[in-house]
Amino acid sequence: MSTESLRIIWIYPDLMSTYGDRGNMLILARRAALRGIASECVEVQSDQAIPQDGDIYLLAGGEDGPQALAAERLIADGGLNRAAANGAVVFAVCAGYQLLGTSFYAKGAKCTGLGLLDMQSDRGETRAVGELAGPVDPVLGLPPLTGFENHGGRTHLGAAAKPLVTVRVGIGNDGTTEGAWAGKLLGTYAHGPALARNPALADLLVGWAVGSPLPPADDAWPDRLRAERLSAVGMR
Ligand code: GLN
Question: Which residues form the active site (predicted)?
């Protein structure tokens, strides 16, 4: 952690913030507070420079047009790539996830991504809309992912990006895997918001940022939400 409090940077809420993704920032701050870790949430609009002193950088979902604009601005700024190279945690959802790869499609045009994750996205024949769930890469030690997806893109991982989830319900990347991670970069198609529905994933990200795993918290309430969402898709 760079300072006494955890700095959570939400990138371009003016362009990318769909399906309650702002909740991811609130949940990170809440999960940190439960362990006595103070945090500061910083919203960086698309006409502002990406600060370099963040511990966790968040990217959210967005429509094709704003997504393409966000990628252009992030490439021109260069700050997110520098922060990631310096070891910051990056958590990205849907449009934000796609733009971490080398390329993606928006409004029929191929767009250059940030190249932070070894993957590229094209378009599927149908839009993927609905519940998304499945077991998470066992290396990460997390319970099953539960979320909601709504995207036209399909994502193909290269060797350096590990799949986050094996899909049981929904489409995710390609109907087989969902999301990707490498080092302290993690992306998913899950909205919901993802971290409200998967607080253990929020704890993983905060743990990466502070440099050690977090102690357990009382998860009785989030566990009820998770049980309800997972049973709705026959996973419990
Ligand atoms: N525009 C992208 C797609 O449709 C991402 C959508 C989203 O972020 N929900 O694939």
Answer: 94, 191
